[in-house]
């Protein structure tokens, strides 16, 4: 069962299942994944590689593998598979439109106690400016499985942002996900207000609703988004007078910014506000829940 | 091409012209009529700024019309000033240094996984050996015994501002590469027979690196070994002199 062990295990279990039927699935890790990736390495030793502590090479070689027909999952923590090799992602993976899924564990402040080096606070900002990149930021373990299935069926440059462990299940089954399309989690058809979250913020937003902070708001998750999915937002906003976006990323250049840019033509009368982490969290250490609260979530 | 486009890097291109000639005429299993054939040998130009040499070679062997070379660097041409995978026969776009060898290592690894007979070749500049990513890739390729991977280093001893020695000295390069567990061979990068022999000298279980000793600006007397020609483009008079130089050296050869 996903849920108890969180997104990371859901990812690995789903990847194992998909690799059974997809012989081109390759997992490359950046010397990380202890206690997580071993089942894959044991089951598919010829399709598992530890690239060592060398992310620039890792990302380019994943592009090389992908250029020969592999769907490569490049797995590491927080900023290592993103900022450390940002140019390799930009030039080699995204520009060549290759099926590399960058998997980053520890989205937001999941590694809160490990400090700033391990806080993924600006990753959306990096990924959302790459034209072919699809961001997959699942809200719970079930969405993790759904996103992975989508990415395997629709190979291309993608960024899978996971939490770590212990994320609660919001759904009770693998939902249908589609790029740019809001996934309804709870609410009434006639509601005129909505919260739209991406990533592990889903459970936080659900708690806001449970506490009555946003009366009569519907809750949606948007796990698949990117530059190409902006065009789908205006139509979905139409029925609402008020939308609140939520993310565990810094407010600057994140999901809320993306959302507002998507509506930038000014024709929408919907009032959009955003909940995101504030600059307060930079450099602070603490439990994930502590830092999320400090940052305003 | 460089003259018409008022572009740079002619010295870098002349440095590798002989290497490309040997690769495309004698080494690569490559059919210009089927530049994406699954069983082709793969060639990656990591020093993408020297693309005019590759574009010219690919046009000469028939990947696209020679006449198209006139469009190099012009508005919306697919022949952009750093090598582009939108050009038939080009595997990979580069322009930022330190990407070609890691990418080629990934291709070679894919070939190993699928037990394919094709080979991967990558041509690097000496200056780009400053990039840490190349040394990461050197470790990776050796660790995985990628003997289907051949790297050729265009060692013309000049980089963008100064000599290699005055920038970040590479020596002892041969020993460094050998210490990274590569099979290493050196050759005169303008001697076609020596290059062919060096490129064919691989050992089972080891990736091969050929240190090709070259002259930047080779074949044009006033460009040879001049950093200036990393940037400058020849005016009408200098173009005429350069072409006469090259015609002369071809007549002498």
UniProtKB/TrEMBL annotation, chain A:
Keywords: Transferase. One of its GO terms (molecular function) is transketolase activity. The keyword Repeat does not apply. Residues 5-169 form the Transketolase-like pyrimidine-binding domain. Pfam families: Transket_pyr (PF02779). InterPro entries: PDH/Transketolase, THDP-binding, Transketolase-like_Pyr-bd. It is an enzyme of class 2 (transferase). The keyword Transferase applies. Its EC number is 2.2.1.1. This is Transketolase subunit B. It comes from Congregibacter litoralis KT71.
From TrEMBL, chain B:
Its EC number is 2.2.1.1. Gene3D superfamilies: 3.40.50.970. GO terms for molecular function: transketolase activity. Pfam families: Transketolase_N. It comes from the Bacteria. Residues 2-225 form the Transketolase N-terminal domain. Keywords: Transferase. The keyword Transferase applies. This is Transketolase subunit A. It comes from Congregibacter litoralis KT71.
């Amino acid at each position: 069962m996903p849920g108890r062990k969180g997104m990371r295990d859901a990812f690995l279990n789903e990847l194992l299942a998909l690799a059974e039927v997809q012989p081109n699935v390759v997992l490359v890790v950046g010397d990380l994944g202890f206690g997580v990736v071993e089942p894959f390495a044991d089951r598919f030793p010829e399709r598992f590689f530890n690239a060592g502590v060398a992310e620039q090479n890792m990302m380019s070689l994943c592009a090389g593998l992908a250029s020969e027909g592999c769907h490569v999952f490049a797995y590491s923590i927080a900023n290592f598979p993103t900022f450390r090799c940002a140019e390799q992602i930009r030039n080699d993976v995204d520009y060549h439109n290759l099926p590399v899924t960058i998997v980053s564990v520890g989205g937001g402040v999941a590694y809160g106690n490990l400090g700033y080096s391990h806080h993924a606070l600006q990753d959306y900002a990096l990924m959302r400016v790459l034209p072919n990149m699809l961001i997959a930021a699942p809200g719970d373990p079930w969405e993790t499985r759904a996103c992975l299935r989508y990415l395997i069926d629709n190979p291309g440059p993608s960024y899978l942002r996971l939490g770590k462990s212990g994320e609660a299940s919001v759904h009770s089954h693998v939902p249908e996900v589609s790029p740019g399309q809001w996934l309804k989690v709870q609410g009434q058809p006639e509601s005129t207000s909505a919260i739209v979250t991406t990533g592990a913020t889903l459970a936080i937003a659900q708690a806001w609703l449970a506490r009555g902070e946003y009366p009569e708001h519907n809750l949606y998750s948007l796990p698949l988004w990117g530059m190409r999915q902006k065009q789908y937002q205006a139509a979905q906003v139409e029925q609402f007078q008020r939308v609140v976006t939520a993310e565990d990323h810094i407010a600057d250049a994140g999901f809320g910014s993306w959302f507002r840019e998507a509506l930038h033509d000014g024709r929408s009368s919907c009032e959009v506000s955003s909940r995101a982490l504030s600059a307060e969290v930079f450099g602070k250490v603490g439990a994930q829940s502590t830092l999320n609260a400090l940052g305003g979530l | 091409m460089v003259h018409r486009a008022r572009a740079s890097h002619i010295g870098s291109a002349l440095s590798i012209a002989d290497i490309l000639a040997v690769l495309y005429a004698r080494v690569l299993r490559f059919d210009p009529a089927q530049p994406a054939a699954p069983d082709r040998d793969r060639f990656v130009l990591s020093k993408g700024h020297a693309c005019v040499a590759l574009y010219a070679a690919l046009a000469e062997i028939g990947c696209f019309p020679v006449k198209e070379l006139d469009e190099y660097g012009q508005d919306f041409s697919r022949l952009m000033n750093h090598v582009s995978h939108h050009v038939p026969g080009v595997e990979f776009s580069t322009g930022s240094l330190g990407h070609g060898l890691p990418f080629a290592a990934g291709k070679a690894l894919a070939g190993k996984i699928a037990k394919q007979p094709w080979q991967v070749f990558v041509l690097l500049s000496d200056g780009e050996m400053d990039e840490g990513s190349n040394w990461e890739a050197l470790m990776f390729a050796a660790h995985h015994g990628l003997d289907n991977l051949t790297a050729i280093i265009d060692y013309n001893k000049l980089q963008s501002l100064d000599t290699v020695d005055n920038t970040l000295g590479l020596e002892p390069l041969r020993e460094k590469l050998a210490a990274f567990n590569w099979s290493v061979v050196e050759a005169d990068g303008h001697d076609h027979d020596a290059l062919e022999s060096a490129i064919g000298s691989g050992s089972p279980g080891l990736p091969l690196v050929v240190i090709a000793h070259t002259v930047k600006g080779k074949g044009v007397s006033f460009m040879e070994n001049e950093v200036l020609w990393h940037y400058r483009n020849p005016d009408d008079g200098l173009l005429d002199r350069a072409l006469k130089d090259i015609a002369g050296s071809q007549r002498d050869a």
